[in-house]
Amino acid sequence: MNINLIGIGLGNPNLLTKAAYTAISNSNIIIGAKRIVESIKSDFSDKTYFTEYNTEKILDIIKSNTSSEIAVVFSGDISLFSGSSKLFERLKAFKNCKINTFPGISSLSYLCAKTNTDVAKVKILSFHGKDELLYHNIDSNEYTFIITSKGEGAKEICRKLISFGFFDLDVTIGENLSYENERITTAKPNEFLDMDISDLNCMIIYNPDSEKSISFGLPDEVFIRDKVPITKSEVRAVILSKLDINADSICYDIGAGSGSVSIEMAGLAYEGKVYAVEKNPVAVELIKKNIHNFNAENIELIFAKAPEGLEHILEADKIFIGGSGGELNAVMDIIFASQKHPTIVISAITLETVAQISDILKKAKEYGYDTEVTAINVSKSKEVGPYNMMIAQNMVFIAKLW
């Protein structure tokens, strides 16, 4: 049985590749979503058509027509946000089934070509049926390509850009690409708010001032802190270095204080998630303000005293404990139950907590963890008249389990 998975491109039949045209010609049955099927029907009128996009229902149609050569057609390219991937995996279980794949022209490559944008420089996001983290992606990438969710979805992204302070960036929206009513518009975010935008659209956001690298150990002064203790910049940098956070990490900051570690976690895990757990109501309000100021969309603030508020701890791969309200052992018992074997960093400034950590490290060995402890002494200069005096901060012990 031959199954042809075909990307037909943007919808204009003139952009169908020759290989895809031949594969459709050789197929008896064509399956695809309504818009896609209708775009090719006039050129292949002798075929049997099924209008369907649900993977399970497509599989049922295939099972009922095992003696036929079948083409399943998808919009754009089958390698870019396509239902083809899921169908391909399911088809591998079929006996005597040959799966043939045919790429198409994607909205990404088409719009980049039209705007003379190098695809290699583009970060790709999709807001079509899913939620993405917008701020950090745009802040750190020169070009961001987005598949939006209808015309109103494109406007909502423009509203977010304005709220983030990105009101001066150039946004290019491509509508009805490849069709006769194609329109490509480059303007500032606010200029799109009163436009009628087609539901069939995608966009490229250009940020010439994008950050070329992500750093950590931000100055303490950039955080709203009031009288709530803050993990100092130099100590924070060591903690984050020990955690070794990835872009898609799921992080926990237990005893988040004013949220300085949570904020920096969010910047590093810009495609992931950060859970900030804090029991002090004053600190919780400060975290809210810092989340707003840093546009940290991927932080979920949890007002609770650990071990409460740890509902997602078993999903985490990076965990920092800066304060546990005397419940450090109870928190560690929950973490040790995780199958993900997360990287854990614990900070301590009192000897009592250091003693607890010593026992925890012994227990960690039983669970297969490697461990280390680092002691940090930081002194910073302060002007005293015509002189600079070194002022010592509290000594901090940092334990890492991995």
Secondary structure layout:
Blueprint: E1 2-7, H1 18-26, E2 29-32, H2 34-41, E3 48-51, H3 55-63, E4 70-74, H4 84-91, E5 98-102, H5 107-114, E6 122-126, H6 135-140, E7 143-147, H7 150-163, E8 170-175, E9 183-187, E10 201-206, H8 233-243, E11 250-254, H9 260-268, E12 273-278, H10 281-293, E13 299-303, E14 318-321, H11 328-336, E15 343-348, H12 351-366, E16 371-376, E17 379-384, E18 387-392, E19 396-401
Parallel strand pairs: 1-4, 1-5, 2-3, 2-4, 6-7, 11-12, 11-14, 12-13, 14-15
Antiparallel strand pairs: 7-10, 8-9, 8-10, 15-19, 16-19, 17-18
* Count of discrete alpha- or pi-helical segments spanning 4 or more residues: 12
Number of domains: 3
* Oligomerization state: single chain
Instruction: Tell me the name of the CATH class of the largest domain.
Output: Alpha Beta
- Tell me the CATH architecture of the largest domain: 3-Layer(aba) Sandwich
Beginning-to-end CA distance, first to last residue: 49 Å
**Strand neighbour order, sheet with most strands:** 13-12-11-14-15-19-16
CATH fold description of the largest domain: Rossmann fold
Radius of gyration: 27 Å
Alpha-beta classification: alpha/beta
Major sheet description? 7 strands, mixed
GO biological process, one term: methylation
Domain TRM5/TYW2-like methyltransferase: 248-322
InterPro entries: 4pyrrol_Mease, 4pyrrol_Methylase_sf, 4pyrrole_Mease_sub1, 4pyrrole_Mease_sub2, CbiE, Cbl_synth_MTase_CbiT, Cobalamin_biosynth_MTase, SAM-dependent_MTases_sf
Domain Tetrapyrrole methylase: 3-188
